[in-house]
Amino acid sequence: MNYKKNEKPRYKKFNGVKSEKHHRERRVKDKKKSFSIFQKIHTKLILGFLLPVCCIIVLGIISYQKAHTVIVGNYEKSISQTLDMTGQYFTFSLGMVRSQIDEFYTDVDINDYFAGLYRISATKEIQFLNSTTEALKKKIRTDDLLENVYILSSDNDSMVTTKADDEELYTKYMESAQGQKIATDSSRYYWFGSNNEMDGLLQTDSTSSALRLARKFKKGNTCVIADISNKAVLEILTRINMGESSIIGLVTEDGVEIIPDNEEYLSAMRVGKEPIFYGKKFYEEAITNEKENAFDYINYNNENYMFVYSKVGTTGAMICAMVPEANIIGQVKDIKNITFVVVVLASILALLTGSIISGDLSKAINYMANVLRKAAGGDFTVELKVNRNDELGILAKDLSNMITHVKGLIQEVKEVGDALFADANQVAISSKVYVESTDNIKQAISEIEEGIVQLDENSADCIGQMDSLSNKITLVANSTSQIKNITDATEKAIDSGILAMSVLNEKTKYSTEIMSNVIAAIKQLEEKSKSIESIIEVINEIAEETNLLSLNASIESARAGIYGRGFSVVADEIKKLSDQSKESTNQIRGIIEDILSNTAMAVKIAEQADVIVLQQESAVNNTTESFTIMDGQIELLMNELKSILNNIENMEHAKIKTSEAIMSISAVSEETTACTNTVSDTAHHQLDAATQLDESSSELLNRAKQLELAMNQFHI
Fold first, then answer.
1. SS (H, E, C) 303-339
2. What is the model's pTM?
3. Would you kindly state where each structural domain of the chain is located, as residue ranges?
4. Locate the HAMP domain: which residues (predicted)?
């Protein structure tokens, strides 16, 4: 390094205390850095696991609503169809009974009998009466619905299937409410409930008959009556199971209710002796309704029931039923309870699974972050030990190798820095010795110059003081020899300094190579960090598979129709989960980019350190160049010293001829003065070079101290 005369070298003073304080404050700041609860991987994983649970909850609610609608609808439809089929069955069966009775009603012989045409032969009349009565009894035996048949008449003997007497049966029946009604229109059949006021006369009772079919003959005073078996009707109604606490019954137009026996429940349903169906508002609305079969929800005795009815043809009777609403929604409640239990269990399992997985990942990541934070703060005594067989284990292994490699590099740089500091100290000591020697030479030359001046002044007394001059010349010769010896030693010291500078230059180049290796290792770390991108790709592939699963679920739900709409909702939620998984991978990618950015910053810092080492190498080269210049100056000084010695030898030879050469003393004195000026100038140049060497060695020493302080920040 070349400096102008009296110009001091400029270099930046290193403040090791301030730099160390800066790193310590930065480490504390990094430790205080925290994330919000929703930015933590732990929270994101738990939310990710809870998302399917939310989908299950939505699915459960939708399934419950769908199941409620479908089950209740099916139950309503089933009950309505059952009652409708029962009504149709009664319509058909009672229609068959009416057809059978109509055979007797339209029978010509029977009409002739009651018209009195058989009276011409009493025997024939009795035979016809007995045969017809027997035919009626046979019809009763073959038809379970028929209980009894009566053909009552005041014109002739009545035909009955019971043991009833014939005395005024027709007259008494026609006086009853039923008789008065059929008398109004003989062109149609009338259906009634059991008639208690006639049961005694007809030798029957209301418990054995459920319905009564009656019609008046168009001619004469005759009517036909058929009792429908109460037992047969109850058997039909008993076979219909509407569920627990349900009521089904046949209600006639005149208010008779035929209900299967369940006295305990029926007594709880009735208020006093009031009928259950007849006369109630919902029953009257059903009577006036044009629909043959329908249902409605009613409130009966502060309980909700499903009221269902089916009209029995043109009989005026209806099959009525009341089913507790609790029976209908009972199955739905079971589905609701099961769904609730499944959702609770799924939520607990999701929370436990998410907590375990996220806790494991967070623990490993926090451990590696703490280790890397210490390493970033310069503490390379830490060790990264993670016993995992997944991608985090691979990352931890690579980070551990990186820390070990950087630790070795820093150790080597530190050793080189120590060697550089020792060499710098040696150069500083040598430069001080050289400055002192140069100063002695300068003083010696000053003394020579003073002697020459004195010689010039006393040239007139030259002869008288020849002996004294001869002694002084001898002294000068001795001093010159000493100067020559000092110069030889200085030349050797300069050669040693050049050799030390060469070694220092090689060490600096080795430091440059080490910093290059450090940069390469950090760049390798950057490549390793980029390899995590492959893991993100795997996660993206899983998200794509999840999307495919969502598509398949949508297809299956489309195949299932309305029953698969719940699966369609799940498919949509799975797709949302896949999109959130992609978003999470993008966040991870952002984290990796931050790592790459920090790695690039580390490379930049290492490159700056490399520049500093290059500057040190330049300083060493400049120092070596200064030593080379000094060596040339020493060679000039040696030549001048040789010239002085030759002149001194000439002076010895000329001492004998002094008296003859006294005239030439002045000229020799002038030459000697010129030579002394040259030597003085050379000594001044040599002193300047020594000063520059001393300043360069001081700068080199400061650089070595700066490197040592920088390396002391690392703990190995």
1. EEEEEEEEECCCCCCEEEEEEEHHHHHHHHHHHHHHH
2. 0.46
3. 75-326, 423-542+606-712
4. 359-411
